[in-house]
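Quick start: read one record
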Amino acid sequence: MKRLYNLDYLRGISALGIMIYHYSSWSNGNFSAETFMGRFGIYGVSIFYVLSGLTLFHVYYSKMQFSLQGIIFFFKKRVFRIFPLLWIVTLLTIALSRKIINFTDLFLNLSGLFGFISWDKYFATGGWSIGNEIVFYTFFPFFVLCIKKFKFLMFLIGLIILGLYLYFAFLKLNTNSTLSEQWTKYVNPLNHVFFFLGGVLIGYFFKDVFFKNFFIIVLLFLGITFFVFYPSKGDTINIVTGISRLIFTACCLLICFCFYKMTFNLPKFVHQPLALLGEISYSVYLIHPIILNLTLIASRIFIKVFFYFPESVSIILSVVFTIIISYYSYQYFEKYFIKLVEQKNK
């Protein structure tokens, strides 16, 4: 299956942007809805969901076998891809927090069941989105089956998911309270499955459709322009509710669509780092809070022994260390388990 490097570019850019958002907000406080970082910090994860649905469709739509063996192999690949690094980051997060944990919450996190049962009881920063992804993976084979053989049923499911999306945007989440105060409601996977399904449907409807690059550039420009300049202020609850939710969702879907259909061949010196960043994006996303925590601990020890240097230096070092460690994590840890499940299937 031909790799979609354009999606790697966007995935890597999103992971890098979320890392910078986290580092900046932890240092300077939360960003408001009118800032680019405030918007990207929220919708960068939504872009991950769209890319996840689109990538899975691209890889599995034609070859997925609706047999017990085929379904088991699909889930086995997802488990070997997601869980090993999630386990390590979860345990490191717990160790660094030095807090007494609930055994039930630990079991739910290590099993992945927290996404289904207690989606707000995650340990790793950003772990809630991984829990959401695990839920979406359980939906995916059913989505593909319905698209292939039961299109009317898929239409009904799509309407239900759209209804859930609108329910959260217009009824469940309240603009009179901040997003942080309603975080448990927001991270509910039913609030985000629309993005994943959107990625699947982009792949289904446009997989064989060609668009001129000029047209794609215009659409991409419009999507980014609306994302950056659409008027919304105050707490970030204002960009995940009401009409604003519809506008920003449309921007995310449009940006992912444009990266999917553009046919540029970037120069090698641009392509290689962007493609690599996309490959290591899962590690970047999960590991960066751990790296910052360890860097700050090391800097405090360094300051006591030698001299003071500003927190900004720690953040810059954390970005560099995160990318380096993520590279080695992908090459020698994640790839090992990816290959292991392939070997077991032979």
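The chain is about 75% helix and 0% strand.
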